[in-house]
Amino acid sequence: MAKKSAIEKNKHREQLVKRYAEKRAALKAIAMNQEAPMEERFKAQLDLAELPRNSARVRVRNRCEVTGRPRAYYRKLKMSRIALRDLGNEGMIPGVVKSSW
């Protein structure tokens, strides 16, 4: 199980990403527009830098929803390999069976 503080910090980052997503996208569109005046693009870049760092999507870490583990994460299942194996062995995941040959 991961530290509760790390899990909560990541949840807080996810909330910030949702809150600032539209504003961040609008500013990025202005900053990347080559046809806009240079002053306007520079102002958008400065406004983008004023936003909280944790509101950037890249700062959110994918974590297992069962254990909070940050590594060996399967995006499709939203869990780590260890949780997948444990739940698969218990028969909690449909279509997953322990292999034997």
TrEMBL record:
Q: Which InterPro entries match?
A: Ribosomal_uS14, Ribosomal_uS14_bac/plastid, Ribosomal_uS14_CS
Q: Which domain of life is it from?
A: Bacteria
Instruction: Write out the GO biological process terms.
Output: translation
Q: Tell me a Gene Ontology molecular-function term this record carries.
A: structural constituent of ribosome
Q: Which UniProt keywords apply?
A: Ribonucleoprotein, Ribosomal protein, RNA-binding, rRNA-binding
What GO cellular component term, any one, is given? small ribosomal subunit
PANTHER family xrefs = 30S RIBOSOMAL PROTEIN S14, SMALL RIBOSOMAL SUBUNIT PROTEIN US14M
What NCBIfam families does the record tag this protein with? PRK08881.1 (NF006477)
> Could you say which protein family the record assigns here?
Belongs to the universal ribosomal protein uS14 family.
Protein's name according to its UniProt entry: Small ribosomal subunit protein uS14
The source organism is Consotaella salsifontis
